[in-house]
Amino acid sequence: MENPKTEPTPDLHSALVQNLGLAIAEGTLHAHSVLRLDKLENEHNVSRSVVREATRVLCSMGMLESRRRLGTVVQPEESWNLYDPQVIRWRLASSRRLDQLQALNELRGAIEPQAARLAAGRASLDAGSDLVSLAARLWAAGHGGNQDEFLRLDIEFHAAVLRTSGNPMFSQLHNLVQELLTGRAEHGLMPHLPDHEALQLHVDVASAIQRGEAEKAHAAMSRIVEQFAEEMTDIWSQHHTPSGPAQEPEAAD
Fold first, then answer.
1. Are 91 and 61 within 8 A, CB to CB?
2. Cys-Cys crosslink for 28: which of 23, 75, 93, 177, Cβ 3.0 to 4.6 Å?
3. Contacting residues for 47 by C-beta, under 8 A, at least 6 apart
4. Which helix (H) or strand (E) holds 35?
């Protein structure tokens, strides 16, 4: 006797989207393979409406495509919406997370230094003062070893620089930086305590913006991005060696 299909609920829909998204990001579901909806129903014990809604969401992200007479086809990575926060999280959860972090940081390196330069020429007195205050709180959280507070303030600081640039398109990229910083922390790719130079560089960025020193703001932010990549790669290499199986790095306490 067949088990009855579970009635659609938000949790079932979200779980199926999550499972399929992760499988596509990892490559378990190969590009150009065709998904059979009836098979997904049976494998996940959900109704056809749950499967259809889940595949519709993934189609909107570019990870799947519904083709007439062929069915639902897994799309190659170049078709995905790589700026979608959920797609970023799935890529970070895959075995290729370092590639994803590097790609995000390279994008960040093309944007944040220029945002800092613009902010130095456009920040109001209040906005400049707020950045300096935020950098001071970030410094205190870093030296105090409060990782959760440090991450929260770090995300807030970089979002503030993007916003203060006065470019609304830069400002909307704060979600990408948030996913980058959060992903590094969640996957244990940051030092237990922030490096002194990194803390000082955030202060330098804020101070340069407050004083209207565009090139100094640009240079300090560029160095932040460079150091981020260096630290991440160093920590990854300490836990992953070519001679043995990859070991997940332990998250900092």
1. no
2. 23
3. 5, 6, 7, 8, 41
4. strand 34-35
DSSP letter, residue 45: T
Query: Nearest CA to 72 among 112, 24, 19, 120?
Result: 24
Determine the Cα angle at 142 with ends 139 and 148, to 5°.
120
Q: How far is Cα 227 from Cα 215, in angstroms, rounded to an integer?
A: 18
> Residue with structure tokens 């609920």?
9
Q: How many CA atoms lie within 13 A of 224 on its CB side?
A: 30
* Cα–Cα separations (whole angstroms), residue 148 to 89, 102, 139: 19, 23, 13
CA dist 92 and 22 (Å) reads: 10
Nearest CA to 116 out of 6, 207, 23, 41 is that of 207
- To the nearest 10 degrees (0 to 180), the angle between helices 37-44 and 10-26 is 110
**pLDDT under 70: residue ranges of the chain:** 1-10, 239-253
Whether residue 161 contacts residue 66, with contact meaning beta carbons closer than 8 Å, is answered with no
Q: How many CB atoms lie within 10 A of CB 202?
A: 25
Q: What are the tokens at 98?
A: 């370092």
| Both tokens assigned to 204 | 């330098």
For the record, the structure tokens of 227 come out as 């150091």
Burial tier of 122 (Cβ tally within 10 Å: 0-12, 13-18, 19+): middle
